[in-house]
Amino acid sequence: MAQSGKRPAKATGKSGGGSKKPTKGGPKGSRAKRFWKRLGITVLVAFIVVGLSGMGAFFFLYATTDLPDPNSDFQTNTTFIYYRDGEERLGSLAVQNRQTIGYDEMPQLMKDAVVAAENRTFWEDPGFSVTGIARGAFSIATGGELQGGSTITQQYIKILYLDSGQRLSRKVRELMLAIKMGRELPKEEILEGYLN
Predict the structure, then answer these.
(1) 193: how many CB neighbours lie within 10 A of its CB?
(2) In the structure, what pLDDT confidence band is assigned to residue 62 with cuts at 50, 70 and 90?
(3) Is 28 helix (H, G, I), strand (E, B) or coil?
C-alpha cells in the first residue's frame, strides 16, 4: 500500500525530543567570553578617545601658537656716543654688539660645520627630533631630568623666545614653536637666525 508522500518519523531513542547538547564550558564559558569582549571594546574606545583628545589638543596648541618676529622681539638697546659736534660717532655701549648678516654672507664652511656639529639631520628634520623627544620622555619616566635632544630649530627657539628653565610646559611650547617654525620658515632662514 502506498502512503501519501509522508515519511515515517525517525525514532531518536531520546525522551523529551529535540534537546540540545550543553555548550562547551557551560554558561560560565559564555560569561567569560562576554567579559573579554566588553573589556576589549572598552579598551578600544578608550584608545580612540585618548587619541582623538591628543590630536585635538595638538591642533589647538598648533593653531594658537604664534611665531614671534625675531627682528622685533630680540633687539638689543645700544647707546651711541658722539663727539661734541653731534655728528661723528665716537662709539657705542651695549650688552651685546649685535650686527646681523644675511645667509648668503655667511661662509659656507661655517654653515656646514655648525650643521655637522649640532644637528646632522637639520636639512631633513621637521624642526624637532623624534628620537631626542623619545629619549627625553624615557628620562622623565625613569625619574631622570628633562634633557635636550634639541635640533638647531629648537635651540634657536630656546635662545630667542624662551627662558632656560627645564619645565615640561616650556618643553611643550618649544616643541610647538619648533613644529610651526619648521613648517613655515625655510631652513636657510632658521640657520641664519641661529647663527646670528
Answers:
(1) 21
(2) confident
(3) helix
Give the other-Cβ count within 10 Å of 51's Cβ: 10
Residue 46 CA neighbour count, 13 Å, CB half: 6
pTM above 0.85, yes or no: no
pLDDT, tens only, 139-186: 777 877 666 568 999 888 888 776 666 667 777 888 888 889 988 899
**Cα dist. 178→26, 50, 135, 150 in Å?**
59, 24, 17, 10
Comparing C-alpha atoms, which of 26, 28, 10 is closest to residue 18? 10
Please count the residues of the chain.
196
CA distance 191 to 116: 12
Q: What does the buried/exposed string (b/e) look like for 9-45 if buried means 16 or more CB atoms within 10 Å of the residue's CB?
A: eeeeeeeeeeeeeeeeeeeeeeeeeeeeeeeeeeeee
Q: Are 122 and 152 in contact (CB under 8 A)?
A: yes
